[in-house]
Amino acid sequence: MSYGNRPNTSTSNEAPKDYEVPHGPSDSVSEVSFSPTADFFTVSSWDTSVRIYEANSTTGAAIGKAIYNHEKPVLCCAWSKDGTKVISGGADNAGRCFDITSQQVGQIAVHEQPIKCIKYIENHNLVLTGSWDKTLKYWDMRSATPVLTVNLPERCYALDFTYPVLVVGCAERHVQIYDLSKNPSTPIKSLISPLKWQTRCISTFLNRSGYSSMGNVEGRDCTGYAIGSIEGRVGIQYFEEKDSQSSFSFKCHRENNHVHAVNAISFHPVYGTFSTAGSDGTFNFWDKDSKQRLKGFSSIGGPITSTTFNNNGSIFAYALSYDWSKGFVTQPQKSAVYLHTVKDDDVKPKPPKKR
Amino acid sequence: MGKKKNKKVVRPWCWYCERDFEDEKVLIQHQKAKHFKCPHCNKKLNTAGGMVVHVAQVHKETIDTVPNALKGRESTDVEIFGMEGIPQADMIAHMHALETDQPTKKIKTEEPMELSSEEIKKQLAQHQAMMQNNSTTGQPFSYSGYSTPQQNMPSLMPHQYSQFYQRPGVNSAQTYPYRPNQIPGQSLPIPGQPWRPSVSGVNQSLYGQIQPATTGQSAIYPSRSANSVASASQIYPQVPHAAVSGMSPSGQHSYTPYTGASSANTTMTQYQETSPTTTVPSVGDAMTTNETTNMSQSITQQTAQKSVPKVVLVYSDNEVSMEEKRAELEKYRYNEDQFRQQVHALDISVQSRVANLKGRVV
Predict the structure, then answer these.
(1) CATH level 3 topology of A13-325+332-347
(2) Helix and strand numbers, DSSP H then E, in chain A
C-alpha cells in the first residue's frame, strides 16, 4: 500500500524554513519531548546533556532554561504529566529525574544495560523504563528498587503508550502489547511486527472521537499503533479483531533506490494525523484514515532523529543530527533542533480522494 | 487474449505501448499510471502535455519523452487521451494488424522464440559437424563444461544421435526422469497447468528451442506456460521491469527468477551425476540440456538484473540497532568495571606515594 495519490494542493515538497533553537547540543539529539502542560521542551543528546527550553508559540522562538547531565549519552527523555519533572534515561544505565522547580537532579532508575525508552505513567505515578537488558521496569521515583520488572523477549527498541495500552517494540521484530490497568506484567498480545525489518519507532494512536474530545478522558480509546522500520516502511496496526483488516503498511522515506530508516512517528494531538521522519532528512504529514500524504517537505540535509508536537499541535519540533545509519563517519553533520510552526491545513485530515 | 471477436468492435488500445484493454476506463487508468505519471512526485496527469507542464512548473525540469512508451511513440507532443488523438496512420496500421490476425503483441512474444529456434538449428548443425568429425578421427568427444564419461561413444555416436533426433524422446524417455526432448502432449505438463518453478525455467527454454527442430509446433507455447517473470518480460518487452516490480512488495518478486536459474543449475548437475554410466543417447540429451540451461540461465539472470530495482537499505543490520552500535564506541561506552579499575589504580598509586613519603619522613 502506498500513498500514490496526493492532493493537488501539495504536489511538491517545499523546503522547511524553520527556526533553529539556539545553543543546541554538541552531539546528536536522541529525543525531543514537549511538556504536556506548557510550551517547554527537552532535548536529550549523545553529548550527555539534557537541555530544557521554553518555546514561544507566538514568535516561534525558544530560549534555554536549564541543563543537566548524565555520565554517558542520553538516549531518551520525557515529561511528567504535570510538567514539573523531566525524566531521562541513558547509556550510563541510569534513569534520572530533574525537578523544574527545585532544579535538583536525582537518579530514579537503574538497568544492567543502557535505557533506550522512558515514559511517565501518570495514572500510577510511575516511571517506565525500557532497556537493552531485555527488561521493562516500573519505578516510583523514591525507591532504589523497581516496583515491577517485566521481562521482554528481546532488547527494547521503542515503546509508546496511551493509558491503558502499552506497546513495546523489541529487537528481532517482537512487539508486546500490555494492558496497564489490568496486568502490566504479562502481555495481552505478543506478536511479530507486520514489517519485515527491524523496528525503529512506535507510536500509539486514539480513535477518531478520542482526538476531537480534547482533554476529555471519556471516549478516548487507544485503537492501534503505528510502527516504523529501518526499511522505509510504516505499518498502521489496529488492536481490535474487527478493525484488523483496516491495518495496512506503506512505503516512505525512499529516494530512488535508497531506502532510509523511519526514525520517528508523532501523532498530532488534535487531529490524529501523524508525522514521519527519516534518515533521509525529510518529514511528512500523513492522514492514515484517508490514506493520503497531507504534506511533504524536502530534505533538511541530514537525518531527522526525533520529532514531537507540542500539547496543542501548533509547534512541530524536529532534530537534525546524525543517526549512525552509515556507521562511524569522520565528519558528522551538525546537530540542531528546529521548531516548525504547523499550518492547520497541513495537518487537518482530508476527505478521501476519489480515484 | 481474444483479439478478433468482431472486426467492427475494436478493443480500446494504448497508442504508447500497443496494449489493448477491456474498457476505455481501464485504458485511461493505464495511461495515467504508466505513461502520464510524473517521474518526480508520481502525480498522475491526464495527458502527456499535462505532464510536461507539471514537470516544468513544479519541478522546474523539462521532460521530452513519455515513460514506458514504444520506440518512435515517445513524443510528448502528441496529445493522447484514451483512444482520442491517435494518429490516423497508426490507427489504420493497428486495424490492419488486427485484420490480418497478426496482433503486434503476438509478434513480440514470438520474437525471442524465433531467435532461439534459429540458434538451435545453427547449434545443431555445428554439433552434427563436430560429431562426424569426432567419429572419423576417433577422438573422444569433449564439450566444454560437460564432463560425462564417454566410453563407447565415438563409434556409437553418429547413429544414436540421428536416431535420437528422428524419433525424439522414445528411448531416452525411459532412462531419464527428466526428459527435455519429449514431444509435447506425451507426458509433459499441459499448458496452463502450473509447473514447478524450479524446473520450468529449464523446460521453458528447452521447448522454445527444441520444438522447432522436432515438431515445429506453436512457438508461443512456452511463454504461455512459463512462470512469472520470464514470460512477463517476453510479453511486454517495452515495459520496464521497475514498473512491474513496483507493484509487488519490493525485493521479493525479483528473487524468483534467480532461484529458478540456480535450481535449474542444480537439476542440471544432478542430472549429470546420475548419468555417467549411460551410453551415447544421453550425450545428445545432456548436451542440449547443458546449452539450453546456460541460455535459460542467462535469460533469467538478465531479467533478474533488470527487474531488481537495486534497493539499497541505508541501514541494513536487522539484528542490532544504530544506537547499540553507536554506544559501543569508546567515546560513548559505559563500563563500570573500567571505572573501578581506574579508581583502583589511582588508589594504589596514591597509597604507594604516601608510603614513600612516610619512608622519607621516618
Answers:
(1) Methylamine Dehydrogenase; Chain H (2.130.10)
(2) 2, 30
